[in-house]
Amino acid sequence: VILLVKSKQTEHHFTTLTKLRNDVSKFFSTPASPSSTSQEDQVVVNDDKIKVMKFIENCLFPRMVYSISDAVYCAKWVVILHKLHTPHFSTLYTLDKLLKDLPWAILSLTENESLRVGTFLGEILDT
Q1: pTM of the prediction?
Q2: Is the pLDDT reported for residue 43 higher than 60?
């Protein structure tokens, strides 16, 4: 029974990863412009940064403080986005933003929420 569950879980894992690989270009998609100038390129870079900031503010942060398992899930999700080479997602910028902004956010969190943020950061830095 355990081997059957494990094989089904492995199959589901690979199916999910395949779906993610197929859809990864849509996660942080930016409308393509027919011709670009350096100023337009700068706008795209700023747009990418805004999308990452929104991702942190609306997806990562609210979930990472909810529970320990959610903190681990968020960390794994960031690692998966990195491993899939997600277009318009900068892992370096995301980590930079997190490490600069989280200390200020922690001041307004409860002790348990701060512990969960620490778990998230531990998971991120451990990989």
Answers
A1: 0.76
A2: no
